[in-house]
Amino acid sequence: MHLLNTGVKKPGGIQLPANASISWSLSDLRATTTIEIQPKKAKESDLRFFLDGKSKASFEPKIKDFLSRISSELPFLNEVDLIISSQNNFPHGAGIASSAAGFGAMSMALVDAEGILRTQF
What we know:
Layout: E1 2-3, E2 7-9, E3 15-17, E4 24-25, E5 31-39, E6 47-51, E7 54-55, H1 60-70, E8 80-88, H2 98-120
Parallel strand pairs: 6-8
Antiparallel strand pairs: 1-4, 2-3, 5-8, 6-7
């Protein structure tokens, strides 16, 4: 993927940036998320989230809301505690959706977990 400011089409089909912009290739950017699934220890499922090895409790409400919305599709989420660790090499705060990459990686890991759990039980 290549990120470039969209421009204005000039006569002759040439597209030039509409304003000063920066361009860089995103091919080397990675998001890796691991999820540790444990049997639920309390009435409510527990979630702990780590970003780049550091606890980020401030991210947990947003993740819990997301998990709640998808629990009808992934019912195992109601029966487990999760430890989610995400790492990426996206420049944080650069406006290129580093958190979206982490959510995408987490979503893929949860779907993979559902498939594994379904074959085991």
